[in-house]
Amino acid sequence: MTGRTARNRHAYLFIAPSLFGVVAFLLLPMVIVLVLSLFNWELLSAPEFAGLDNYRRLAGDGETWHSLAVTAGYVLLCIPLQTALALALAVLLDRRVAGLRTYRALFVVPWMATPIVLGLVWDWIFDPRDGALNSALALVGVDGPDWLSDPAWALPAVALVSVWQHTGYNMLFFLAGLQGVPRELHDAAAVDGATPAQRFWRVTLPLLNPTMFFVTVTNLIGAFQVFDTVYAMTGGGPSHSTEVLNFRIFQTAFKEFDFGYAATLSTLLFAVIFAVTLAQVRFFGKRTTYDLS
Questions:
Q1: What average pLDDT score do residues 256-285 get?
Q2: Of 21, 53, 148, 236, which is most buried by a Cβ count within 10 Å?
């Protein structure tokens, strides 16, 4: 056995536990779902091979495409706002101020709570009669809407909860990225006469592309898979205005007991997430550098 072969064997031994987790809990379930999408299965009966029938059904399923549109709307409401807020908070906290660690911890606390609990708390906050939000608006003479009962406001309200929960967590990544930007570059730009705004847009932001790439990719994947908050706050209503695709998958599998078609919907969700992630990789690939030496 050569030295290189021995080193490779040792390397495989070290990565084996993680590799087993990836295969057993990621790749294998994906294959099972893909295979299941080719069957009709109602759980209590034996699966029946259906070929591409479920995909033909999907093509004409208006409710599913509506759910996908709702999901896309949710993503567009969440990701730009929470990314911008997280970056703004990171810039503000990237300074030597008293109580800095306390501020960082406070902003991350919402992310540590479970979505179900947060959904129940915010359900009370958005209550049109006794909720804290409408009570606060009434103090300034504003009549707040029925946040979770009005189809026009329900999805923005759910998106607001997600933004509130994840902004602080994303802030930590931006803060780490900001602290990795060499100060010499800022000093050189300042000597050349660049204003603070110019230094941010021309120096800081381009060097934050690796962090921006990571944050946007992980946030988009998470946003497309939202379920807990919707389930706790609205149950997909009112009038299906918050019925995101993951919630429709849940309904199809565990209320209609149509597991074959639910697997087809899961395959659709995977395809959408994969396409969006691939587009991000190509967008950031030519704009990102990891070598600051």
A1: 93
A2: 148
pLDDT in tens, 28-51: 999 999 999 999 998 888 889 999
What token pair was written down for 110? 């919402």
Q: Is 288 exposed, middle or buried (0-12, 13-18, 19+ CB in 10 A)?
A: middle
Give the three-class secondary structure for 40.
Answer: strand
**% the chain with pLDDT above 70:** 95
83-126 confidence digits (pLDDT tens): 999 999 998 888 766 777 787 788 888 888 887 888 888 988 99
In the chain, which residue ranges form alpha helices assigned H by DSSP? 3-22, 28-36, 53-59, 62-93, 100-112, 115-125, 132-139, 151-179, 183-191, 196-199, 205-207, 209-224, 228-233, 245-254, 259-285
E strand or H helix that includes residue 48: strand 48-49
User: Is residue 292 predicted with pLDDT exceeding 60?
Assistant: no
Three-state secondary-structure class, residue 49: strand
Helix (H, G, I), strand (E, B) or coil at 8: helix
Q: Which residues pair with 65 in a beta bridge?
A: none
Per-residue pLDDT at 249 exceeds 60: yes
Report pLDDT for 100.
73
Q: Identify the helix (H) or strand (E) that includes residue 39.
A: strand 39-40
Instruction: Give the span between the Cα atoms of 208 and 181, in whole angstroms.
Output: 8
State residue 120's pLDDT score.
Answer: 83
Tokens read off for 60: 């004409």
Q: Which two tokens stand for residue 11?
A: 């390397």
DSSP string, 57-103: HHHT-HHHHHHHHHHHHHHHHHHHHHHHHHHHHHHHHSS--TTHHHH
- Listing DSSP states for 179-211 in one string gives HTS-HHHHHHHHHTT--HHHHIIIIIHHHTHHH
